[in-house]
Automatic annotation (TrEMBL):
GO terms for biological process: terpenoid biosynthetic process. Pfam families: SQS_PSY. It is an enzyme of class 2 (transferase). The keyword Transferase applies. Keywords: Transferase. Its EC number is 2.5.1.21. This is Squalene synthase HpnC. PANTHER family: BIFUNCTIONAL LYCOPENE CYCLASE/PHYTOENE SYNTHASE. One of its GO terms (molecular function) is geranylgeranyl diphosphate synthase activity.
Length: 274
């Protein structure tokens, strides 16, 4: 299965010795995400599959053989855990976020407030950045905090980019308290109504994502070598999506913006000036 990706994974900018580990982390997360999202399996089957996946993670982390269900995931991941001493709790956090996706979709439940939304990002996105910093040997607390900001921002950007698509799948990421404060009802969201209140609500969250990204952007100067340039493009790719959302009047209840080849020169130029 192929997926549209805003940002590069294990690209040529990564040192060759790290590419297998980065690819292993990516496919571990991608496969689990597909279990939570793709196809028409009932919720309980998705949760059962994720439970088996979690058991296989525990097995390879303990040096034992996993089940035969996902050899292309746990073979490379087991090697990466052994070779680079990957922090396994970060991988487990990703699974807890995917399990939460299934539970909230099944119950048609959204997020009460921003604290709950940010806690989801802490588990669904931040572990990826911390795992990559671990591979690059960056462990300083300031760098980790900045990484969390960038990863949270990327997750939020994905939410606001995919807003209409997610609502159609019974996923509601706009916090209920913010919806109430802007006078946007659950019925408005289900109907994908682009009222002025909805536009203002989305604009507020786009600005929140932008501020979060900028708060972490100095990390590009702490990551060594070519990886720092890769990170510049990741940051600028996220900011460029926000530019596109703003340019289309925050109408992501009905239109999904995405990066194209025409955006690459802009991202490169802005990367040079970071």
């Amino acid at each position: 299965m192929t997926h549209y990706e805003n940002f590069p994974v294990a690209s040529w900018l990564c040192p060759p010795r790290l590419r297998p580990a980065i690819a292993a982390i990516y496919w571990f997360a991608r496969t689990a995400d597909d279990m939570a999202d793709e196809g028409d399996a009932p919720a309980q089957q998705r949760l059962d599959d994720l439970a088996q996946y979690r058991a296989d993670l525990a097995a390879v982390a303990g040096g034992e053989a996993p089940s035969p269900r996902w050899p292309r995931v746990f073979g490379p991941l087991g090697a990466a855990i052994q070779n680079f001493k990957l922090p396994v709790p970060l991988l487990a956090d990703l699974l807890s976020a995917f399990e939460q996706d299934v539970a909230k979709t099944r119950d048609r439940a959204g997020y009460v407030d921003r604290d709950e939304l940010f806690d989801y990002c802490r588990r669904s996105a931040n572990p990826v950045g911390r795992l990559l910093l671990h591979l690059y040997g960056v462990h300083d607390a300031n760098a980790l905090a900045r990484s969390d900001c960038i990863c949270t921002a990327l997750q939020l950007i994905n939410f606001w980019q995919d807003l209409g698509l997610d609502i159609a799948r019974d996923r509601f990421y706009l916090p209920a308290r913010d919806c109430d404060a802007h006078g946007v009802t659950h019925e408005d969201l289900l109907a994908l109504r682009h009222t002025q209140n909805a536009t203002d609500l989305i604009a507020t969250h786009v600005e929140m994502a932008r501020a979060t990204m900028l708060k972490g952007s100095a990390l590009v100067h702490q990551v060594p070598g070519r990886a720092g340039w890769e990170l510049r493009l990741v940051v600028q790719g996220g900011l460029r999506i926000l530019d596109k959302i703003e340019a289309m009047g925050f109408a992501t209840l009905s239109v999904r913006p995405k990066l194209t080849a025409w955006d690459v020169p802009v991202m490169l130029w802005r990367s040079l000036w970071m």
